[in-house]
């Protein structure tokens, strides 16, 4: 379900037990609980997500936007990383006052950095074996930006806590 492409909502009642809705729900007014408010009350639906470590997420986003020429002017990685703090919180619809209630709605939250381990745990939770697929959309990274200094990492963590 890529709602920003204008796709219609999917009717949960038509899903088979082995089917799932997959998509990106990161744009304003298309976040999962805005798009599917019935998830707030339907406890028969197993809700899970996979998230990335925030610095890796923003770095990946930079290269994705760069590849598509969506960056303004001569934007560089470090300027981009300093903008729009707490991007992961935005994606999940969380803030300091609601994060516990938002995160408790998920039956499972996996970590991309621990993908295999996350899939193993998810497999146990749904009682089905899930195997990892092949990565097909990795962004090409600038060599000089692959190593982010510890000082910058600390700054990023502090401003994105």
Which keywords apply here?
161 residues
**Share of residues in helices:** 25-40%
Q: Approximately how much beta-strand content do the residues carry?
A: under 5%
Assembly level: single chain
Mean pLDDT: 85
The N- to C-terminal Cα distance equals 30 Å
H-E order: HEHHHHEHH
Structural class: mainly alpha
Poorly predicted parts: none
Number of helices: 7
User: What is the number of E strands?
Assistant: 2
Shape: globular
Read across the widest sheet, the strand sequence of neighbours is 1-2
Main sheet specs: 2 strands, parallel
Spatial extent as radius of gyration = 17 Å
Molecular structure report:
- Helix content is 35%, strand content 5%.
- It contains seven helices and two strands.
- A two-stranded parallel ribbon has the order 1-2.
- The model has no long low-confidence stretch (mean pLDDT 85).
Summarize this structure briefly:
Helices cover 35% and strands 5% of the residues. The protein is mainly alpha-helical.
SSE layout:
Layout: H1 32-35, E1 48-51, H2 54-67, H3 77-82, H4 87-92, H5 99-103, E2 108-111, H6 115-126, H7 150-159
Parallel strand pairs: 1-2
């Amino acid at each position: 379900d890529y709602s920003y492409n204008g796709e219609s909502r999917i009717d949960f009642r038509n899903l088979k037990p082995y089917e799932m809705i997959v998509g990106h729900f990161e744009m304003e007014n298309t976040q999962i609980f805005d798009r599917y408010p019935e998830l707030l009350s339907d406890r028969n639906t197993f809700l899970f997500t996979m998230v990335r470590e925030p610095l890796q997420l923003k770095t990946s986003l930079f290269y994705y936007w760069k590849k598509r020429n969506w960056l303004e002017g001569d934007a560089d990685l470090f300027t981009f990383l300093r903008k729009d703090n707490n991007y992961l919180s935005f994606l999940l619809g969380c803030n300091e006052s609601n994060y516990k209630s938002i995160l408790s709605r998920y039956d499972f939250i996996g970590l991309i950095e621990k993908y295999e381990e996350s899939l193993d745990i998810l497999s146990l939770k749904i009682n089905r074996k899930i195997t990892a697929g092949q990565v097909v959309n990795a962004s090409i990274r600038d060599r000089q930006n692959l190593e982010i200094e510890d000082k910058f990492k600390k700054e990023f963590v502090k401003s994105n806590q």
